[in-house]
Amino acid sequence: MKEGAGFADTGRGLLALLRAPLADSRESSVNGDFVSSHDGESRLWPRPFAPEAARLSGFFVGMATVESHSQSGAPVRSPLTWRVKPRWSWLLLPGSVTAGLLIWEALVRVNGFPAFILPSPERVWARFLDVLNNGTLTRHTLITLSEVLAGLALGLAVASALGYVIAKSRSLERVLTPYIVASQSIPIVAIAPLLVIWLGSGLRSKVLICALIVFFPILINTVVGVRSVEPDLRDLMRSLKATRWQTFLKLELPAALPILLGGLKVGATLSVIGAVVGEFVGADRGLGFLINFGRGQYDTALVFVAVATLVVIAMSLYGLVALLERLLLNWKR
Prior knowledge:
CATH architecture of the largest domain: Orthogonal Bundle
Helix content: over 70%
Number of domains: 3
Mean pLDDT: 79
Largest sheet: 3 strands, antiparallel
CATH superfamily of the largest domain: MetI-like
CATH topology of the largest domain: MetI-like fold
Radius of gyration: 29 Å
Shape: globular
CATH class of the largest domain: Mainly Alpha
Low-confidence stretches: 1-8, 17-82
Structural class: mainly alpha
Number of strands: 5
Order of helices and strands: HEEEHEEHHHHHHHHHH
């Protein structure tokens, strides 16, 4: 009889998993020989099988919380998080790249495109090795990368400082916001020729174009981040007689950092666009110049190589910012 009762309890617990009988109840409770789970939906489990039920519930909904009881009888909740990750998930990226290359190769072979229209992956790879071995790709990449990094640093410094001042002064925001928004309504392609005329076709015009294109997202994220600080926390800092520098360092900077780094991710990728736009308008070096040169010579394989290099630069900058975010925001985990 005891064995039959145990099997009956197990059956009721598994049936409760599928049916989820108690809906919309987030409060834990004890009902006879059953324990309720805390996974967003209340479910009843036989007390001896509560851990097993938590594992099953975690498999389906990603989170289960089982209620245990201390000697005093007070309920104690224990969260159990289960994330199901396929073992083959690491194959998704190389698999998708391989599939794309195969489709590309098939398009070239089936349609018989000439090399100046759509070169094959093999021809692009051969051109990549050619410009890499003679130093052309390295030289132009370093020039574009220096423009991107300098423009990103300038835009970050100016946008962060101005964003903090605007966040602290509503009157300054009302004065500057129309001009900032108006400047963003003008395409950077329309401003780039003027900057090249005024500053020349050297490094300064490219750096300024990069700074302008990354300025707005970082500025907005800085303002939003600083203003996201809870008023109660500001009152606490005042009650502790903290100075402005201490309030900034201990409260405002940590609060704004997640949003600021989000804007920096966007700015890091946009800075590459700014450098290329400047090189398109007027330059005799850089990856933008290399693209123009390949287009003029109908060397489409060289254009593909330069574009792929720009993608690698943008992805690398994004990855570095993501790594910085992981290191600086480790306290949030």
